[in-house]
Structures are given as C-alpha cells and as structure tokens.
C-alpha cells in the first residue's frame, strides 16, 4: 500500500478496509467465456471508454493518511499494465482445458501491486471444451461486493437478440407473509420468539467467530497459512430447469436447493475420504446481500446517495450447520435441501445480522481496523466452507456486438479456508465454482461428489414427488 499522500479523494468503506488489511486480502475472480476469439484492441477500447468511467475506484489506488485512515486516490491508469495475455504451449488437440485451469490457479495466488488500481483483465485466446476464448476479471473485494461488480459488468453488456432492450434476469417470487393480517396481540408470541432466536443466533455466531472452531476434516486442513497455499479451481454446470423442478416440488427457493446440493456433496466427499468424519460438526458460512432489493440497478443508481442498492460491500454471513450424513438421509438427499431451507428461512431475518454488524463496528471503534479485520478473518477461518450465489442474465448477452458470451461464473480468492464455493446462473444453466486447497482436497473427486449429489436429488424428486 502507498505511503501518505496529501491529495485524497474519498474514504474506503469499513468492509473494504477489512478486506484489504494485514490479515485479509479477498479478491473476486470472474470468468466470461466467449463463442469467438477475442479482439484485443476492442477490449482495450472498451476498458477505456466503458469500464474505467463506471466508478472512480477503478482508476484509484488505496492510500493511508496521517491518522492511518485509508482513502481512494484517483491516478492515471496505464491500461496495458492491467491487461495480461498469456501464451499457452502448443498441443495436438488444441483444447487447453488443463492449461486454463492451471492459469486460474496461478493468478489466484498473485497479489495486486500496491501502487496501481486493484484490478486486472486476462485475455485467454485459446479454445477449451467450453468456449473459443475467455476473459478473466480479477478485482479486489475492497472495490465492491459481487452485486456491485457484476452490476457494473452488466452495464457493459447488451442482449444478443435485441441490444436496445434491457437485460432480463430470472424472477424471484416470494410468498407473501400472512403475519401482516394478524393483530399485534396475536403476533406477540412470534415477536418474542424472533427476539429469543436472534439472541441465540448472535451468541452462537459470536462463539463461532472466537472460540468454537470446526475440527480438522477432509475439507478443512486447519493450516494457519491456508490463504497462502496453492489452490485448484474447477467448476461444474447444472440445468437450472432441473433445480427449479426440485424447488417447485419442495416449495423452497433456488438458493435452498443449491445449498442442499452442496451440503450433501460435502458429506459424500467426507464419507469417501474418512467415513467417521460424516458425523463431525461442520459449519458453512452462507453470504447474503443485505440491500433492500435483489434487482440489479444501473451504476448511476448504485452511486446515488439515497439508493436502496448502494455501491460497496453490503453483505453478511450466516453460520449454517451442515447436516450430518446418516443412513436415513443418505437415501433421502432432499432432506438436506429441506433442512437448509428451514435454517436459512429462520436466520435470514434474524436479529443476529444487525447485532453482528454493530459488534464489528464496536470492535473497530475501540480496538481499531486491524482488530475488526482479524475478527472477520477468524469468522471465516473457524468454519469449513464459504458459499455465495449470484444471479446472471436469463438471455444471452454480448460484450460488444461481435463477442457473444457463452458462459459466466466466478470465484472468491484469499479466504482462510480450504474450500470456498460460488454459484451463478446464466442462460438456463447454474455454474458452481469451487476453489480447494491444492494437495489437501482432491478437486476432481470433490467435483464428482457435486455431480453425484445433484443426480441423486433429481432422481428422488422424480421418484417421490
């Protein structure tokens, strides 16, 4: 990070501050697969004309003032320093899947220069079994969360069928609560229960962030320096229609089905590596967007002072216990979906969420930014997996008229965990990405367990519902 400069622009947000500290450095790695080879000059032009003007942070470095507070300072950007074009070895079948995966793992460990804006774009003009080429976006999490960064990315895209129309996203239908029709007296037991559950959730969350550490298992090495270890990055694709079919039959959300599939896959992998570990208490951190809307807004709307979907890092963590694998739920994997749905539904609006935010603010106020970052670091490190889910366009999009996008997915980097998982929908598919500690978790076996989990759930949904 740069030393003190006299000219500063605007302060770094608290979460952005924590995500770029001595104990944490979290980044987002996005992959955009294309149907045709990429014109490098066109990408350079788009970066200058469209990407950089989106937000001042993209043309700013992080500096520290005399009081030790971090700020964004706008600088001149040399675009060529931020665009990387690797050269892969020549191979007989001309499909570079292995080289592509190795390259993702390589750049996952690389850190950003402290004297330049915190982003990079990698142009991979080599075909894989998935696409003709790919763009890789690596951005530091202090620039914004997934909602902000993807919202900015979507502003650079246009529909293939009709560029003049706005992008379409899958609808999110929520069942209206009947509690609004009840009297204050009839709601009293519910309100008392809400407060009690909130206090219990907060207490458990506090213990998980400080004292209660998940045991070492086949998905958690417990290494103190795990965030510096090499990672293997892979992904798997599922039909969104199959997931929606399960959703409709169980009357849950797509996110509930996703979490259930991941939980069952984790237990299948643990069972394959160490049978006794399936009953070990294992905790997941599920990331949630705390904005008042789930609909993507334009960049102009996000940077507006009174926006209900402001730019920045507006997220929270839910501690979710992963159900144990038993003889009964091994043959009924949809129980994992139902259990995940029940817990998330109760915790999504738990009072523990604002209480945890207040606690983090108090830690920063009385012990400083580094202490707050350490608390956040331990919240991640004491659990076994982090899961985040983003929604992508339902229709095909293009980056300029002649560069149609075939697939989009993303990863999070730098978390002090042996396993991180992400998911993103696009064009009727759900891409589940995962980064695993190299040499500790067998990435290909884990991928097989995810596929097996999905297959078993589809089979049970067709058989029993």
From TrEMBL:
<dbReference type="InterPro" id="IPR045034">
    <property type="entry name" value="O-acyltransferase_WSD1-like"/>
</dbReference>
<dbReference type="Pfam" id="PF06974">
    <property type="entry name" value="WS_DGAT_C"/>
</dbReference>
<dbReference type="InterPro" id="IPR004255">
    <property type="entry name" value="O-acyltransferase_WSD1_N"/>
</dbReference>
<dbReference type="InterPro" id="IPR009721">
    <property type="entry name" value="O-acyltransferase_WSD1_C"/>
</dbReference>
<dbReference type="GO" id="GO:0005789">
    <property type="term" value="C:endoplasmic reticulum membrane"/>
</dbReference>
<comment type="pathway">
    <text>Lipid metabolism.</text>
</comment>
<dbReference type="GO" id="GO:0019432">
    <property type="term" value="P:triglyceride biosynthetic process"/>
</dbReference>
<comment type="similarity">
    <text>In the N-terminal section; belongs to the long-chain O-acyltransferase family.</text>
</comment>
<keyword id="KW-0808">Transferase</keyword>
<keyword id="KW-0256">Endoplasmic reticulum</keyword>
<dbReference type="Pfam" id="PF03007">
    <property type="entry name" value="WS_DGAT_cat"/>
</dbReference>
<keyword id="KW-0012">Acyltransferase</keyword>
<dbReference type="GO" id="GO:0004144">
    <property type="term" value="F:diacylglycerol O-acyltransferase activity"/>
</dbReference>
<protein>
    <submittedName>
        <fullName>Putative transferase</fullName>
    </submittedName>
</protein>
<dbReference type="GO" id="GO:0005886">
    <property type="term" value="C:plasma membrane"/>
</dbReference>
<dbReference type="GO" id="GO:0047196">
    <property type="term" value="F:long-chain-alcohol O-fatty-acyltransferase activity"/>
</dbReference>
<comment type="pathway">
    <text>Glycerolipid metabolism; triacylglycerol biosynthesis.</text>
</comment>
